[in-house]
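WARN no homologs supplied; continuing
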Amino acid sequence: MRNNLVETLVGAVVLFVTFSFLYFAFNNSSTNSAEGSTYLATFDKTDGLSVGADVKISGITVGIISDHYLNTETFGGVVEINIDSSIKLPEDTFAKITAEGLLGGNYLVLDPGGSDIILQSGDEIMETQGSVDLLGLLGSFVSSGDSK
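OK structure emitted
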């Protein structure tokens, strides 16, 4: 009888810790896309960029990728960006998809320009650079060395 009581108490403590962790994780996650400004950007390639990926300015995370889809007319990858509404992006902002490393995922880098005209929420960032195929580059580098 005493073993059943101890096992029940240990199980209750484990459940309490689990629910506490889940509560903390949901309250501190940055996946809430209801707040902030939304912008669109069209890329030729969005390989490795997924919904929920970081959006960074000067190495600081300022938002997330809230959606991405194919433009069926131009066949470009359209990315919907949600960033902190206190950040005002100039019209000539440059968006680039960058890899975190050889094994890491991709994220979006915004490089604000110097224009006096500020983009409004819902506007499109016109200057973009798609993702780079690192394995393709490595393969072409290796095969170029074989021609000797």
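Strands lie at 37-43, 54-57, 60-70, 77-83, 94-99, 106-111, 124-125, 127-129.
OK
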